[in-house]
Every structure is written in structure tokens, then in C-alpha cells.
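Pasting as-is:
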Amino acid sequence: MAKFFLTNKKEWYVKTKERVTNSDFSLAFDYAKDGVYALTTHKLKIKNTNAYENLEGDFVIATGTAIYKESLDYTSVISDFGSLGIEGIRNNTIGQYAYIIKSAKNISVFGDSFGAYNIYYFQKDGYYYISNFLYDMASILRHEITLNEMNLLEYLVQRAILCNETLFNEIKRLNGKEYIY
């Protein structure tokens, strides 16, 4: 599984990039322009292509298994997004996945409609941090978050946490039909 990270805080981006560089994962895409910082990695054993940036600086990142219009080529996702929107992209994608689409000055983050693919998000004081790896987020945000002991107990008993909760009070999980804009 590839990792993705999206934030608007340079400090978190720098720490995340350092963390990725010092791991077994290799960087596949790196975007740092106009207060938007996005990273994605290759899968551990496969040098997959899971991002595309056009000449205007818009980009799409797709992690998990996102088969868009029977292809793993994401070059048409950005242009299709303008006319199809989130539901149109979902309807044309098979798999369990996360999409991060920057189009013009807007960013949309969403996953498959079943919520099978984990997308976590944190927001505080106008800053956000979004990823599919909770452990990496918690490491970067360790001074900003607190453990939710009831959710820890829930996870230990049933190996899941219901709704959009996580092990941390301040980090939430995106549900299937939800999206971040």
C-alpha cells in the first residue's frame, strides 16, 4: 500500500518528507506550491504511478486500488472532475482507494463509497493534515493530539472503532460518502 500526505503547514510537510525519506518507502510524487504540500509514495514492492500533475499545476493522487475507466492512468481524472464531480469519479472507479484532486485553487479528498479505504484527517487553527496512515500522522502531530481511551478499548475488544472515530480525539476518519473540500 502506498502512503499519501496532504497539509497546508510547511513544518508538518518537512517532517513528513523526512519521515518518508528515512523509511522503506520511496517518494513517488512531491508537490509544494502556494501553501499546498502533498506527498505520495510508491508501494513497497512496486514502482507504481499513483499521481499526475498537469501543466497548470493541478494534480491527482490515487492510492489503494483505483481503477478509473478500466485504467490505472489518472491523466483524465482532473479534466473529468470538472464535469463529473466526486460522484462521477466514484461511479467510474472500481476498487478501494483515496483520491486527492487539486483543480484550480480547490482540493477535494475522498475515497470509495463504502469507506473501505482509510482516510484520516486533522484540523486545528486553520491548518489541516490528511493521510491514509494513522501512525505517521500521530507521530507528526504528537504534540497536538490526545489518546481516546474508550476508543482504544473499543478497538481492543472488537478490532474496530465505529463511526468516524480513531484512537485519537483530534484525528477523525472519513466515512464512505463523506469528502473533504
